[in-house]
Amino acid sequence: MKRLILLVLIMLAACTTPRGLQPEDIPTRASINDLATSIPLTQNAPPTPFNETQTGFTSVDNGLTDLSGWRYVVQLNFTGVFADTPRQANAAAQAEVSFNQLGSARHVIVTTSGALIGQTDNTSYEAVRLGPDAFLVDSTGCKKNTDASKTAADLRAGQLVGGVSRATPGGKRATINGQDVYFYTFSEGDLVLPSIRIGDNGQVNLTSGEMWISPAHNAVVRFYLNLDVTNVVIFDKQLPVTGQVTMRYDLYDIGNSFNITTPFGC
User: Fold this and answer.
1) How far, CA to CA in Å, does 196 sit from each of 85, 137, 192, 223?
2) How far, in Å, CA of 40 to CA of 177, rounded?
3) Which segments of 13-167 are extended strands (E)?
């Protein structure tokens, strides 16, 4: 009888698959390709809520007035021709703006050149806002609290290079201009370009672009665009143009409260 019981136990053991070897016990096999992408994306994911699509940067300098101080340099350059003609057209505009929140102060230096703007040589102006007062110094002298001085002193980067309606985390992290930033992607349809107006049969094609956002400051630190344009109007000029547009925006010195005073000549 003992031999019979022992024989039954051996047979039962032989017919029972050890735990862990059943199909339902084996974990789903990981994809090597998925692992290769998921690791850097996880490591470089921005913190909440910046790990989701951002919609607050239709103007690239949105949110900067919440910071104590900063400086940015913004540029727009065009090279090409007047549409449907061989006549060369070009334009360049650069602005450097610094800010002091405590003093409600801004300092703006603008340089422009190019036949498209109606200038063959570089021209520049300096503008300052000190609380309610706005100053403008150009080739004609100093203006205070005029419409022109107010417009010049309040110039924003978004007026030149715009921004995007949607920016999606792109899985990259870097240190740019001294800030911890994350890379965001966007499509051609996301572009907001106030300085470019598309004419009849006009086109704007995004050849490359990048946006880097600092979650710590809720600010865009770098925004670069390269565009091919056809039959567009730039700077509200009457004649459409065709060619290449480059836009560059870099934010520096976050937290630096600049000493801004009445400009020389006023």
Assistant:
1) 19, 27, 9, 17
2) 22
3) 69-82, 88-100, 105-114, 119-130, 133-138, 141-144, 163-164
**Joined tokens for residue 45:** 């994911």
Structure confidence by residue, pLDDT tens digits, 216-266: 999 999 999 999 999 999 987 778 999 999 999 999 999 998 999 999 999
Q: How far apart are CA 157 and CA 134, in angstroms?
A: 18
CA-closest candidate to residue 221, choices 230, 212, 229: 212
Structural domains in the chain plus CATH codes: 64-252 (2.50.20)
Distance CA 107, CA 110 (A): 10
pTM of the model: 0.82
User: Which residues have a Cβ under 8 Å from the Cβ of 195 and sit 6 or more positions away?
Assistant: 76, 159, 160, 161, 162, 234, 235
